[in-house]
Amino acid sequence: MNAPTASSFRSLYPDVNPTNGLPLTGVERLTLVVACMVLIYGCVNGELLIAGVGLALLLFAVVALSQKTARRIRSEARNRFPAEDWSEYRTASRLNLNLYIPLIWLVIIAMTMAGFWWIPHDYSVLGGALIAAISGVLIWFMPGANPVWNRRLRSEQGVQWAPVNQRSQNPGPDTMH
Predict the structure, then answer these.
(1) How far apart are CA 22 and CA 77, in angstroms?
(2) Within 13 Å, how many C-alpha atoms sit on residue 154's CB side?
């Protein structure tokens, strides 16, 4: 990365730190988990109305999260300056998200289909709730979505990017005599 690119990046996006990601908060993850659980419960029981409500909740949650101002600004900065050291790229490669996220979703889909086909009608409410709960736990702890997966990376990398401190550039006495 050359100096003019870094200078233009910092002048256009002074509040965006590419080395620190913007993880989901607990409330944001909870909205996604609850929406997915409603969708999965509806699918396991074959209730199209409940599944439709879950799908609508999930779409609303995803759109609401993507329209958060900090995420939109960070996404725009990442699209305009892909050469920066974005934490999202390091996290995706370190955690192998291209493998684990689809694998977790395949497990959730397989459990949902198995529940739909093989749970007897007398146990459909209990089975649907159990499969939705297991799926909710999987989604809650999914790599890349839960901040617990990023803790090790932060402790390893230390502070690599910080705003320029004007005082440290002009060393000298604090008071004039």
Answers:
(1) 13
(2) 10
Tell me the backbone φ, ψ of residue 25, rounded to 5 degrees: -80, 170
Question: Following DSSP, what letter does each residue of the chain receive, concatenated?
Answer: --HHHHHHHHHH-TT--TTS--PPPHHHHHHHHHHHHHHHHHHHHT-HHHHHHHHHHHHHHHHHHHT-HHHHHHHHHHHH-TTS--HHHHHHHHHTHHHHHHHHHHHHHHHHHHHHHHS-GGGHHHHHHHHHHHHHHHHHT-BTTBGGGTHHHHHHH--------HHHHS-S-SS--
Question: Residue 172: pLDDT band by 50, 70, 90 thresholds?
Answer: very low
Asked whether the beta carbons of 24 and 145 are under 8 A apart, the reply is yes
* Long-range contacts formed by 100-106: CB under 8 A, 24+ apart: 100/142, 100/143, 100/144, 101/142, 101/143, 101/144, 104/138, 104/139, 104/142
Residues 58-92 pLDDT 10s: 999 999 999 998 889 888 888 888 888 888 887 77
Name residue 146's beta-bridge partners: 143
Indicate the domain borders of the chain. 24-155
